[in-house]
Amino acid sequence: MAGTRGRWRLLGASILASSALVADAAAAQTPAAADPNITPYAPAYFIEYRPVTALDMIGRIPGFQFDGGTSARGFAGTAGNVLIDGERPPTRSDALSTVLSRIPASQVLRIDIVRAGAGGIDMQGKAVVANVIRRPDGGVTGAVSANASLSDSGRVSPGFSIQTQRQRDGRSLDGAFQLNMGESENGGSRVRTAPDGQVLLQAQSRNENEHQSAQATTVYEGPLAGGRIRANALISWNTGSFEGFDTLFVPTGEERSTGDNDNLKGEAGLRWTRSLPRGMTLELVGFQQLVRSNGDFTYNTPVFTSDTLSESKSGESIASAALKFAPMGRWNFETGSEIALNWVESRSAFGFNASPVLLPGDDTRVEELRSETFATGVWAPRAGLSVETTLRYEASRITATGSGGEAETQLSFLKPRLNLAWTPAPGHQVNFKIERNADQLSFGAFTASASFNTGIFGRGNPDLRPAQVWLAQARYERVYDRQGSFVAELTHELINDVLGQVIVTETPPGAPGPIAFNITRNVGDATRDTLKLSNRQPLDRFGMTGGILSASLQWRRSQTEDPVTFVDRRLSGEQPFSWSLGLSQNLVVQRISWNVNVSSGIEVASFAPRTLSGFSTGPSFHAGVTYRPDARLSISGSLFISDGFDSDFTLFDAPRPAGAILYEERSTSPGQIQASISVRRAF
Questions:
Q1: Which phi and psi (to 5°) does residue 56 adopt?
Q2: Would you call the peptide bond into 327 cis, given omega within 30 degrees of 0 as the criterion?
Q3: Which of 208, 278, 431, 569 has its CA 20 to 30 A from that of 215?
Q4: pLDDT digits (tens, 9 = 90+) for 345-389
Q5: CA-CA distance, 164 to 129, in Å (whole number)?
Q6: Phi, psi of 5 (to 5 degrees)
Q7: Residue 324 Cα distances to 120, 272, 321, 335, 572, angstroms
């Protein structure tokens, strides 16, 4: 397999290098817009591609790589790189890609690709941002979609959605509902061996999964109190069940695991903007989210039985205000502040052989009250050159109470950012960025965990600091041949207060003696370097009209000191190398577009005090075709083929490296094939 991966890496690197040379040798000039840092794409640009939604149009813009944002708490620093009418939707669970897929292509007036904060756009540290500008009066539109997928195990997963929009007289109202359900089945094998090679366990596995989900959204936009308001609401529900069977040959018997979970979520957001005297603009945002989750899990073997019941409730409240000033010569200024309250209450009940097990952190409430204030200035000394300077100050108070102990932590971070954008020639863009960020603590680090199979228990830690990251990034973008682009991005990160797991020993209530627990703590520093290369090479000049050959590579190297062995290693769960190759073609006369793509598998390693684990898969293949006979009907089909996976797990009787190996276990599963079809009808 190593030789195959090497050949794929060589092929991907060769394509990137040759495509970049072609781009430099014969690149078409991009027409300059009124502002060299704004590239407008009118609907006429997309006609030959027959886009159905704004998301389809975004995917056709050369050099633009869609970023849906992050799921961190609060809105500050989590935004994606696409705006709608110059603003970001105040929503959390309604993904940016989903919002864009609900905007019909017929309602898009144009899409502006913005660089360097041109036009007063808040870039939020992004090198490039797309601004989807809608027509003010799009009338009444909508669409009905149905889809189904079939796996090689014979399981069918159907889905259905409906959406409608009404835009008239500066007001818009849209609603959407989607329903999905499905089931899957897979199998594999497990082999567990002792250090001397003796087989301790050999089993054949079979797993069955079922899931159902439903989501409803509604959005209203219109004038209010001299400004404009956007109000959105969402409610979603999903449930799933899992059942796994392991038929044991050594020793004989059966292991069985089951799991059931259900989640209910509701959220509402408001955004109000108004123009003020002297060219200023005020924006107010409010948001509320509530989530409830329940789970019931069992794991039974010939030796023991175990069960876990979990229940959690969480909420998030956000209020923010931003003031954008009128341009002052070559300067643009914006300032604002956000305050967010997040909380989670979690309860877990563990049972072993029908007896309760009490663990520190099995009943916990965590609250985080956080504020962030920012000031941004963008200086454009001349056309094609701009400097964005941002200073953010974050302050937070985290309180934790419960069976894991009580603690209160006060945190504050100064987070500067400098972003330089330079357009040396049409079609060329260079960016340099330096910034400091602070990660957010996972509330899961405050709660207990239990693995009865390995005998490893985790206790919550109420006293943690988030990791802080100094980031330096250089990015080069080249747009050519109308649909061609080459992007190179190099990032260096210095990470302080890295989180990792160590061992502590204590006697919980009711236990006969001391127990060793895994606990998450701040364990030191780390560095990470990432190089990303991507290229889209139009093939018209090579005789394939409408064809595009795409390739991407990513190298990642990280280093930190293992908190248990004190030996340098890479960060846990990181993949050092990944790649993808794709070929697509748009057939204008036939109204068909097709694509094939192959991408690297996964290869990661994870480190814990008493365990080492690795997970790897082979490459995956995807092929798709879309037929759009008219502007309202779209029929798509796809085929996905995934290679099998290998999972390796090593358990020690004490913390590494002093501990002796108890056993090594290897799990394998064959690949899967899935075919799907979808039909969308607009009205």
A1: -60, -40
A2: no
A3: 208
A4: 999 999 999 999 988 888 999 999 999 999 999 898 888 888 999
A5: 27
A6: -65, -40
A7: 8, 14, 10, 7, 41
